[in-house]
Amino acid sequence: MNATEPDLSTRWNRFAEAHWGREPAAVPFAPGLGPEQVYGAVAASCAPPVEDAVGVRFATAAQGRLRDAGALLPGRDDPGPDAYRDRIARHLTGSGWLLSVRQPLWRDFGLWAHVRELVSGLWRAVGWPALPVTAELALGEHCTGRDAPAARPGSFALTWVLAGTMAVRLWPEHTGTEYQLAAGAGDLLYWPARCRHLDHYLDRCTTLRIVVPARRAAALTHVRGLLADRMQEDLVYAGAPGALPFPPPAAPDGEIGAAEPVAGTARLFAGLATGPGTARELRVSWAARRSAAGLEPAPPPGPAVPLEPGLRVRASAELFRVPDGPGRAVWAANGHTLTVEGAGPERVRNLLRSEAALTTRELGRCSRMPAQTLTPLLSDLHRIRAIELVDGDGAA
């Protein structure tokens, strides 16, 4: 960043005051990412096996979306975005095309962490998202993003142009006025919820888009999925018969109710929805989401590393803390959670918040935690990248 350029927090505060929740806008806002950095995540998402590529979409200007793009997706002979574009240009002989990938960031922790820090500045200004946000990377060349504007959009959208140029037509539902915005590399396109849009990817365009749910109804999918998972764990529910009796049984007064497997499922759903277990799961999942700035799925934990007493460590991510009952808490970092108990872990957390590099021996001495409980805790923190090893002899 240039010495005269405002820091990220200041830029986001200015953006929020001028644009958030108002009208569509195109503003200079370089994200600190280049097309080469994101191409690796795009290529990895397009690699076999096919079942991992559910978020991959490829379309041409002439034919629309292709169900099986095959050799048109990035491959081993495409080491970078320019090589890929040149090959597609030869293959399609001038026809426009668009390759987009939903939720690709989890494959590359460095890229994911960069985007998380980028959007965290905005969330600090406007509030943290309660639901997962969607990240999309796209490479396009003279192609329209969809055949028609999306109907009844319920999300905010932030689109950074990383290379090339693009244009967007927008129709805010509350005004009916059409906007036409254009952006080049280093620009940010923004539009609020209730705004239909139509993308036009122009010259050698690469974009990063973050979509933020803005309607309360969007929470239904999240809650329904959580309850469905818990219901599948219930032995009675899982063992319900596949056939229903006919004629259905009647009450003494002759009234016919729902068949028991269906009625029982409704009772189980209602009980789980109001139970303390569901409330805790929602609370824990929000802690993980807060630590990931809404970017789900998060990259998987790293490999376990033995942490010997002389090793020096320091904090490498915020440890977000949520109380979890008497003497218990949930810690979250980089989209993952740990449950801790007692005062010792809290002393460790306070020591790590100083951002000073400490040996594991020093952490044990200052936190008064024995090695047999401290070492597994530090190992877990290292796996979720909340702490990192620091070079040095570590003598203490």
Number of strands: 18
Q: Order of helices and strands, N to C?
A: HEHEEHEHEEEEEEEEHHHHEEEEHEHHE
Oligomer state equals single chain
Distance between the termini: 37 Å
Question: Gyration radius, to the nearest Å?
Answer: 25 Å
Helix content: 25-40%
Estimate the global geometry from the Cα principal axes. globular
The unreliable regions are: none
Write the layout of secondary structure elements.
Layout: H1 8-18, E1 25-28, H2 35-46, E2 56-60, E3 64-66, H3 81-92, E4 97-102, H4 109-126, E5 134-141, E6 143-144, E7 155-163, E8 165-172, E9 179-184, E10 187-191, E11 195-201, E12 205-213, H5 219-232, H6 235-238, H7 260-274, H8 276-291, E13 312-315, E14 320-323, E15 328-333, E16 336-341, H9 343-352, E17 358-359, H10 360-367, H11 371-383, E18 387-390
Antiparallel strand pairs: 1-10, 2-3, 2-4, 4-5, 5-12, 6-11, 7-10, 7-12, 8-9, 8-11, 13-17, 13-18, 14-15, 15-16
Helix pairs in contact: 1-4, 5-7, 9-10, 10-11
Could you characterize the architecture of this molecule?
The strands form four sheets. The protein has an eight-stranded antiparallel beta sheet with strand order 1-10-7-12-5-4-2-3, with helices on one face. It has a four-stranded antiparallel beta sheet with strand order 6-11-8-9, with no helix packed on it. With 396 residues, the protein is of the alpha+beta class. The protein is globular, with a radius of gyration of 25 Å. The model has no long low-confidence stretch (mean pLDDT 88). The protein has eleven helices and 18 strands. α1 (8-18) packs across α4 (109-126), α5 packs across α7 and α9 crosses α10 (360-367).
